[in-house]
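Hi team,

Filling in the usual template for the complex we talked about on Friday. All components are listed, including any nucleic acid strands or ligand strings, so the model treats them as one assembly.

SUBMITTER: L.P.
PURPOSE: interface mapping
COMPONENTS: two
RESIDUES: 632
SEQUENCES:
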Amino acid sequence: MTMDLTVGPNMFFWDAAKVRAFYRDLAASPVARVVLGELVCSKRLPFWQDEIPAAIEALQAAGKEVSLTTLALITLRRERRQTAELIDLALPVEINDVSALRHVPEGSGFWVGPLVNVYNEGTLRWLARRGARRICLPPELPLSSISVLCAAAREEGIAVEVFGHGRVPLAISARCYHARLHDRAKDSCQFVCGEDPDGRDVETLDGQGFLTVNGVQTLSHSTATMAAFAAELAEMGVSALRLSPHTGDFAAISAGYADLLAGSIPSGELSRRLIPVVPGRALSDGFARGASGAEWSGRADATAPT
Amino acid sequence: MMELVCPAGTPAALRAAIEAGAHSVYCGFADETNARNFPGLNFNREEMAEGVAFAHARGARVLVAINTFPRAGGEPLWHRALADAERAGADAVILADIGLLAYAAERHPGLRRHLSVQAAAANPDAINFYADAFGVKRVVLPRVLTVEEIAAINREVEVETEVFIFGGLCVMAEGRCSLSSWVTGKSPNMNGVCSPASHVSYAEDGQELVARLGGYTIHRTPKGAPAPYPTLCKGCFTSGEQTGHLFEDPVSLDATRLIPQLGRAGVRALKIEGRQRSRAYVAQVVRAFRAAFEAEAAGRPLPESALARLSEGQAATTGAYSKTWR
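RESULT (copied from the run log):
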């Protein structure tokens, strides 16, 4: 059983030039598919949406499957309309808010993103029968759940993805924390989230890296990686690891994961390469098997024989 | 009159709430099937049946919350909760998980289904989806909406809506938050707990008391000052130059003064949070709200209430309901 790589939507607010360069480079990288579009805040979209058609074209020309994401939290009428329009396009849509299902015609296929709550076989089967073709599971699921869900997905003939790399999306709110940090209301935010292309760091009062805010979204401070569990996930039948975009040399990061999946580097080697280049310079993988999400199995690996 | 939906963490709180004037109470079984899975709380099967009988004898309703997301491989526990709620005579079950809703609609078609706030149905498309797909009759709206948005939703949906009016306040979209499991491994979605006491520790550091959750510092308070419980999203953190309550101040929700507007917005039921609260607290809050409901229904001004001092951190907010939050 082999896994491949999916690149999820960029969760941060990047300007058009940065978006253009990112997807141009991604077209040349060894990933099988790409989900793009605005996930976090609909106010950002006008600043970069003109880049989307060219990005799709370049990615498809390079042989990648492409999907467009819905927003994670759809509340405004304008956002509902945008969601309906998204589903009318020729590409598969990735649902990250259940309300989007209202616009998906019965019998047409869709993908399910990690921000939809798929915790058990009943939900997975229901979504599969409604037309889900791929499901990226919520990041907080432990390996024991992933294993059970993979078995159900196999019976239903759909693909399962696992959140494999990136700051973990942990929460979404109606309130914009970037605006709050700048003493601004959400409606007059002046797009301050654009100043933090990997999110704005939040530390504890003891100076410990903790969380990251990204507009209405809260993410982990450390970068989660499923590198140490890739072989186990492949064995369970997970079909793809999802890599979440960040600044820096993302092509190199994608290539590192491709090398890991091809068996040409061990997970420890990938982790060593990742630490100096990921935001926060820290890794975590505790949701897989740890006592908490923030834990990092690599700390123990450094001394334990493998 | 709008329906007053009150918390019942224990059989004693259930009786207290109903005697104080609750139209409905909500409660759960003592396991991970409900989102207030705290030690010492909730109902066993016999208590549930007795609670329902007590409520029905007084014209009140019992809504059973089975509103966590069933664990993969563990669904029978949630399925049993559904069957037992129906057997106990529950007036409705409050569900969040798509798989469980589908199961309930198929296997317990006569058991009325409400959609939990944990499903975070925040727009008419979501609500109509749950209504059409699973026959949901009422939706508990997430605490991320303004009163105007709630009114707009009610114009576009057929089902009843219920909103939180008093008590604890999630600042994140409910059912879509993994902050607690990030630092403790226990989450509302999977375990029915948030920032659990089992992972809280306190330590003195000089003149300060440090409250930690899963080893992460959530608060530092001067020794002798009241120390709030270290709920993660209400903690004090630093970002760049700023230090403070970056997500939310330790305030609780009090939308009492919005009762008339929520009524005009077409809301069917108003809900009080607090299944972890004592029966005395529940009785006091329910009595005050029932008086407010009576006044509102009779067209009288809302009575000045003593509710503010019952709020968890003295201060209260109307949350997202008033636009200032945005």
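MY TAKE: The mean pLDDT of chain B is 92. The CA atoms of residues 130 and 136 of chain B lie 6 Å apart.

Thanks, L.
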